[in-house]
Every structure is written in C-alpha cells, then in structure tokens.
Amino acid sequence: MSLVQTQKSIDILLCEDNLGDVYIINNVLVNSTSNYDLHHVTNGEVAMDYLQRRGDYQAASRPDLILLDLNLPKKHGFEVLQEIKNHPDLKTIPVIVLTSSKSEQDILRSYELFGSCFVTKPFDFEEFSNAMQDIEKFWLNLVQLPPKLTT
C-alpha cells in the first residue's frame, strides 16, 4: 500500500436510492467551484461492490468522500458504514451520513460506527440545497481529506 500525493479531483461516492435527492445533490455539486467526480449507487450491496471493486466495478476509483443514506435497499446504511470502517483499506474514507432520520438512536449509532458526521436532509428543496452547499464548502474546500491509498 502506498500514498498518492497529488489529488487533481475529489472522488465522491453517493449512496442514495431517492432520485430526487440525487438530483439536488448533483445540482449543487455541478454549480460548485470544486473539482470532483461524482459516482452514484442506489443500494447498499452495490455500494460495497463499488468500494471493494467487485463485479462491474473492478476499475472503480477509490472515493475520497462518501455520502451515505441510511435507508438503502438490500443492505442498510449502518451495515455499509460498519463494513467500510472495519475494512483496512476503506476505513480512512470520511463518510457523511446524509439521511432523513432525526432519530437520536440513528445519530448515536452513526457515530458509534465512526461516521464522520450526521446530517439530516431537510424536506424543503431550498433548505436541502443550502445544506448541500454547506457540506460542499466544508468537505470539498476547507477539510484536508486523507491521501488516496493504492494497493
């Protein structure tokens, strides 16, 4: 395993089954000044296939950041988060839990599983767009993301 020092663009994996939410997230990022590549999967099993480069995803890039919905089909977001954080090559990737839940149990569980942050998706289009802009400003412009690992 070695570190890749230069990072030309930020690879983002969006794990989201709601196409309306995907539209809002993509719309905010398209208008961003950040250089990024957005990859989208719609269920938890495919998310893990992507991350572990299985099946159709053997050439997938390792994401620098993951946006993870909790209520995913086939494999719940908590299961995905736990697998990511237990995997030696994936555990350093920041995972933003981005969900409609406001449950204190879900918030606590996300942090227990080492999620990087927990964001409740607003139901209002404009508020959701503003929240995504804040995420984009913080995670794509302010934060130093870990260097990519290559195996």
Poorly predicted regions are 1-7
The shape, in one word, is globular
> How many strands?
7
Question: How does the helix and strand content classify structurally?
Answer: alpha/beta
CATH homology superfamily name? Response regulator
Question: N-to-C terminal Cα separation, in Å?
Answer: 4 Å
Strand content: 15-25%
Total number of domains = 1
CATH architecture: 3-Layer(aba) Sandwich
Largest sheet: 5 strands, parallel
Backbone CA Rg: 15 Å
Mean pLDDT: 88
Instruction: Give, in order, the helices and strands.
Output: EEHEHEHEHEHE
Strand arrangement in the largest pleated sheet: 3-2-4-5-6
Question: What is the CATH third-level topology name?
Answer: Rossmann fold
CATH class category:
Alpha Beta
In helices, the fraction of residues equals 25-40%
Number of helices: 5
Please tell me about this protein's structure:
It is built from five helices and seven strands. The protein has one domain: Response regulator (Rossmann fold), CATH 3.40.50. It has 151 residues and is α/β, with parallel strands linked by helices. The termini are close together.
